[in-house]
Amino acid sequence: MSELCKGDVHPLGETECKELLHKLHDDWKLESNSTRLTRKVKTKDFKSAFGHASKVADLSEEQNHHPVLTIGYGFLEVKIWTHKIDALVESDFIYAAKADKILS
Questions:
Q1: Which domains does the chain have, with CATH numbers?
Q2: CA dihedral defined by 53, 58, 60, 62, rounded to 10 degrees?
Q3: Are 49 and 103 in contact (CB under 8 A)?
Q4: Minimal CA–CA distance to 19: which of 32, 9, 28?
Q5: Widest CA span of the chain, in angstroms?
Q6: pLDDT at position 95, please?
Q7: Phi, psi (rounded to 5 degrees) for 69
Q8: pLDDT recorded at residue 51
Q9: Which of 20, 35, 16 is nearest to 84 (CA)?
């Protein structure tokens, strides 16, 4: 089990999060006092949103890193954080960069 899974990592501060945010797609936003990373992707319909969500779910299983996915007509929202520490760590941003390849 990785240190991340044990929760033995220190959360990133707001400044560090903002620096890493600039390396991601422009649609990513920091929320909840820089403890959540969120991207909302517009899609043409519900089925397209579900298709994108399915691809993100596959990535999640491969990476053992599971975001919250919200699917609606014309959108998919991806919300990332490290649940064990209720904050963001570097691997959250790495996961977001991998998700960008799927969502862009």
A1: 11-103 (3.30.1360.20)
A2: -170
A3: no
A4: 28
A5: 41
A6: 97
A7: -110, 130
A8: 96
A9: 35
